[in-house]
Amino acid sequence: MGHLDPETEPLYLSVGDAQRILAHVQAEWPLEACGLLGGIGRRVLAVYPTRNELASPVRYRVHPDDLIRVMLELEARGWELVGIYHSHPHGPPVPSAIDVAEAYYPEAVYVIAAPVRGEWNLRAFRIVDGKALEVPLQWVE
After folding, report:
1. CA angle, 104 as apex, 125 and 37 as ends, to 5°?
2. Residue 7 falls inside a structural domain
3. What's the predicted TM-score (pTM) here?
4. Least CB-packed of 6, 82, 103, 135 within 10 Å?
């Protein structure tokens, strides 16, 4: 990891971590849920569900208290912010214009959960300079 092209290097996610993300977004539905992904490089090692400060069905902002708590934990573990996830309760699983405009962490992978034909779907993107580029999801143990 780390020597691959950042545009094509996958996000490494365990099935258990994906299930934690989906349980959180389902619990918050019909509002947007959001959370942070901690780990090393592109390898997610922990999912941190957070509160959506906006409590909105169409926007999210990680609650500042949660952001500080998670960032301090990541620092204590020697990890980094690998990604940020949120849901689009009514689809589609692609970044909205607001998501692109408010993507303040260009190194992070943005994971979006949205229902597609009744099933929650996860897709991952890097958002850099106003452009969203899809990142492959690689399932790991």
Report:
1. 55
2. no
3. 0.94
4. 6
